[in-house]
Structure formats: C-alpha cells, structure tokens
Amino acid sequence: MKRNWEGLVLKAMGGRDFRLTVLGTESVDGHYQRLLFDDGGLLTAYGTHPTMWIRLWFDNGGRAHQRAYTLVDPDPATGRFTLEFALHDGCAANWAAAATVGDTIDATVQGSAFQLPDPAPEHLYLVGDAASLPAVNSLLDAGADIPATVWLEYAHEGEKALTPRARAHHDVTWVPRRDAGRHLVDTVREALPAAGSAHYWLACEAATTRDLTRHLRRTLGVGKHQLTSLGYWRAA
Ligand SMILES: Cc1cc2nc3c(=O)[nH]c(=O)nc-3n(C[C@H](O)[C@H](O)[C@H](O)COP(=O)(O)OP(=O)(O)OC[C@H]3O[C@@H](n4cnc5c(N)ncnc54)[C@H](O)[C@@H]3O)c2cc1C
Hints:
By secondary structure, the protein is of the alpha/beta class. It is built from six helices and twelve strands. Strand 1 and strand 2 form a beta hairpin.
C-alpha cells in the first residue's frame, strides 16, 4: 500500500514507524472490538503517557487511510497494548471487526504528548464519547486521586458497553447524542464551572469539541494551559 502525502509529512516531522501484530481479538457486546497487539518495539522507543495515541495505516482499496487510536494498558515490559475500536461503518472500524490473530498493521508515532499538569489539578472536567472513552479511562487511571466530572456522549445504548474506569470521587454522566451534538454542548455548558485549579479535557466529534472549546476560552475565560481539546472524529 502506497502512503499519501501525510506519510511524507509525518516522516519529515520525525514520526517513527512500527509494525504491530494482532495477538488477540474480543468483541465488547458487538459495539467495540478490543484487539491486543505486539508493539513491534514501539513502547520501548517511546514510553507511555495518559491518552497516548498512535496513527494506524489502513489499506483502503490500495490507498493509505490513516486514523488515530488510543493505547489501552500499554505495558513496555511485555511490549503489548490493547486498542478499543468503537464500531461504525468506516475503514478502520471494519478492519478491526474483521482482524484475526497474526494480522499486522503499520503505526506511526507522531503528535501524542499529554501529561497531567504538575502540581496536579484539584479537579478534572472531561468530555468525551465512545471514540475517546479509552483516553478518558487512561486519565481516570493516571489521575486516580483527583476528583473528576465526566460527560460521555452516546449515539446508541450499545456505546455504553465499554465501562468508564470511575472511582467513588469520579462523577460520570452519559448524555444521548441529539441534534448533531447540540444537546451535549448545552448540557455541558450549563453545568461546567470556571475553576482556576481545574484541568479541562475535551475530545468529542469535531464541531462539538470546537463549540465547547470556544465556550471555555471565551465565555469562561479558561487559560490555554488549563485546557486540552482535540476533535476525535468528524460527522458526515
Ligand atoms: C487522538 C485520537 C485518538 C483516538 N482514539 C480512538 C480510540 O481509541 N478508539 C476509537 O474507536 N476511536 C478513536 N479515535 C477516533 C477514530 O480515529 C475516528 O473515529 C476515525 O474516524 C475512525 O476511522 P474510520 O476509518 O473507521 O471511519 P472514517 O472513514 O473516518 O469515517 C467513516 C464514517 O464513519 C463516521 N464515523 C467516524 N468515526 C465515528 C465515530 N467514532 N462514531 C460515529 N461515527 C463515526 C464518519 O462520520 C463517516 O461517516 C481517535 C481519534 C483521535 C484524533
């Protein structure tokens, strides 16, 4: 499969390539596919951090199709990690649903670099959905002692099949996806406070993420260093 211009740009930016091998595959209620991978040396080369993601190269009829996925429970000692694919009709999701043990896929590491602020924030406000739930879970694990308020958008009941890794001081609210994401934006805007000692992390559909980011920055005056936001997928 020939890579497109994205591959050249990533290489020029220092992105390194690794070949991953599928070691196991498990359906999560038919709505997510959880794949265990051998990392091909990736974790030794890069270490790990919360929300760490990689770019996978899927073959779309001979053309390269690059999509990002989040490492779940990466273990440098064994060189293994899991990826949890939310299933919909897309090239990446379809590849994951059909993958079998021994299949390989290429990955590039470029662009992922999140660390929880030091000193730790007094509160985490996290807004995500099925695509970013693996990243939300890595934040709840990494900041296990930090109180957190989490909103998760779901398009259908099946998306709740993946369990948030919430502790007693983590408050999780599932919000149905309505009006192309407007309902989540309104729900979060109404509830979200501006708090100087908090960190805000947003990763939803692109337009939803943009709306909430604007609200935090312009309406609530949240500082850049207190906010991490990235659109995780784009509605058609
Ligand atoms: C940093 C980062 C980390 C990510 N980590 C994960 C992860 O761990 N697990 C995960 O499942 N996703 C994750 N995503 C999201 C994933 O990359 C996108 O959903 C991607 O578009 C899927 O590619 P595809 O080839 O399956 O579908 P595409 O070819 O991109 O899209 C095909 C169709 O599916 C729709 N679509 C795409 N994604 C979704 C979705 N999530 N929900 C509903 N409809 C969708 C599109 O609107 C389009 O109509 C991550 C994204 C980023 C930016």
